[in-house]
Design brief:
The chain is mainly beta. The protein has a five-stranded antiparallel β-sheet, with no helix packed on it. The mean pLDDT is about 85.
């Protein structure tokens, strides 16, 4: 899948076949997120932002190659966003 990156003009954002790696950090929307847990079967990633402790459950997480910015973790939507450890109806 490719998407047009308005900021990059005619360059394309490319979805990578790789899955998010638990323990790795990735940029997203101006922040840096660490993947705490990944469930491929349910297509969920539990991520947190080390800068301030924000946590959420990312639905449909995927890695993208964004021209001029590198690899980013993006997702369809998130739930359970909070500054505590209780997300996705599960304890972290």
């Amino acid at each position: 899948m490719t998407m047009t990156n308005i900021d990059a003009g005619s360059q394309r954002i490319r979805r990578l076949p790789d899955k998010p790696i638990v323990g790795e950090t990735y940029p997203n929307a101006g922040g840096i997120y660490k993947v705490d847990r990944y469930d491929a079967e349910r297509d969920l990633a539990w991520v947190h932002r080390p800068k301030d402790g924000w946590k959420c459950c990312a639905h449909g997480p995927a890695l993208y190659d964004v021209p001029g910015r590198g690899i980013e973790l993006q997702w369809n939507y998130s739930t359970g966003g909070q500054f505590s450890a209780d997300d996705c109806d599960e304890r972290w």
